[in-house]
């Protein structure tokens, strides 16, 4: 949520317990260890100061150059971050939601030692008008910290579908506190229809299976974010954290030009001891496939959501109440398919 990010990988073999877990999939086969995804750790302070003040800006769309333009004029009466020195060093940042990673952020320059900064800068996005109209503009004001711990000063969100595009004048808007939906990542990203099953070792006969198995049946996903007029080319990645081996991740085929893709894809991870279910987490993420890069659409994490994995504190053990209940039901009903319809989130 801020301007500095670092990536860390959490390797399964850091633990003393290292079960030998493999995986295979209904339309591809591989034998490898359980895998996990890279985590992004963001630095930013959302709660140290109260949002206050106003921001003046104007919006325009340049039809000739197919460019969305945000004219950021100035701010007034912003919160003071460093009370001892009576100063704030503010700048303005914008995203196009829901997929802020796709279009990226834009920023103004930093104005030092002022709560009434004047910018007169234009932030630009190359984007088709049809695509722009299914976005929201998030404009936020931040205090720039030299050490990277930037402080949130307020924001405003504009629904571009209902914006009056004949209004090209500069207007003042009240800055608001961080919304609960933004903090919790509760923006609607679609829902995943799936079933899961745990098969304990030896439960189907002597040494059958030789080790425990987690079966994941990805049926379909509904109401995905439509990033372009033709829809999305969606596929699902699956990892079992905490292992981050790239060789072991599984994925479905790509379903093209469909915001309600049907996958009907089954993945099986073996090598599970029953006690591993308390410390492992199945992460399923949905992506839009493009030639140069894939864009994240949303995901779920199935686990107990304790924040711990084999006694180590981890960010990814963060399952919601729905996800935890789904996992617990699987743990308590061996050899039975458990059905679920879970909302995707921003992870």
Description:
The chain folds into two domains: 48-182, C2 domain (Immunoglobulin-like), CATH 2.60.40; 190-344, Sandwich (Immunoglobulin-like). Helix content is 7%, strand content 41%. It is built from four helices and 22 strands. A six-stranded antiparallel β-sheet has the order 3-2-17-14-13-22, covered by helices on one side. The chain has a four-stranded antiparallel β-sheet with strand order 9-6-5-12, with no helix packed on it. Mean pLDDT is 81; it is low at 1-20, 27-44 and 180-186.
Keywords, please?
mainly beta; Immunoglobulin-like; six-stranded antiparallel β-sheet; four-stranded antiparallel β-sheet; 4 helices; 7% helix; elongated
**CATH architecture designation of the largest domain:** Sandwich
Q: Helix content range of the residues, please?
A: under 10%
Biggest β-sheet description: 6 strands, antiparallel
Q: Evaluate the radius of gyration.
A: 23 Å
Could you give me the name of the CATH homologous superfamily of the largest domain?
A: C2 domain
Q: What is the domain total for the residues?
A: 2
- CATH C-level category of the largest domain: Mainly Beta
% residues in beta strands: 35-45%
């Amino acid at each position: 949520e801020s301007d500095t990010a670092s990536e860390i990988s959490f390797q399964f073999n850091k633990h003393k317990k290292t079960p030998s877990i493999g995986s295979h999939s209904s339309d591809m086969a591989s034998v490898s260890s359980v895998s996990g995804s890279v985590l992004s750790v963001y630095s930013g302070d959302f709660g140290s100061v109260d949002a206050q003040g106003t921001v003046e800006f104007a919006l325009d769309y340049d039809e000739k150059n197919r460019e969305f333009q945000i004219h950021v004029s100035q701010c007034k009466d912003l919160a003071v971050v460093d009370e001892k020195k009576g100063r704030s060093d503010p700048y303005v940042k914008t995203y196009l939601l829901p997929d802020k990673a796709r279009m990226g952020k834009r920023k103004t320059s930093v104005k030092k030692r002022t709560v009434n900064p004047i910018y007169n800068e234009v932030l630009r996005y190359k984007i088709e008008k049809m695509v722009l109209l299914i976005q929201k503009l998030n404009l936020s004001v931040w205090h720039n910290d030299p050490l990277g711990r930037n402080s949130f000063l307020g924001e405003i969100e504009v629904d571009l579908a209902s914006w009056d595009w004949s209004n090209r004048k500069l207007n003042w808007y009240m800055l608001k506190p961080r919304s609960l939906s933004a903090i919790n990542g509760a923006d609607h990203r679609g829902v995943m229809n799936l079933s899961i099953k745990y098969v304990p070792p030896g439960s189907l006969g002597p040494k059958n299976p030789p080790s425990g198995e987690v079966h994941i049946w990805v049926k379909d996903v509904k109401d995905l974010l439509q990033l372009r007029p033709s829809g999305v080319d969606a596929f699902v990645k699956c990892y079992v954290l905490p292992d981050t081996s790239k060789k072991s991740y599984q994925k479905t085929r790509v379903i093209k030009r469909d915001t309600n893709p049907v996958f009907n894809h089954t993945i099986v991870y073996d090598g599970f001891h029953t006690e591993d279910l308390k410390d492992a987490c199945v992460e399923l993420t949905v992506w839009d496939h493009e030639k140069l890069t894939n864009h994240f659409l949303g995901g779920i994490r199935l686990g107990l959501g304790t924040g711990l994995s084999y006694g180590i504190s981890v960010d990814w053990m963060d399952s919601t109440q729905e996800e935890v209940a789904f996992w617990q039901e699987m743990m308590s009903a061996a050899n039975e398919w458990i059905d679920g319809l879970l909302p995707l989130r921003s992870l």
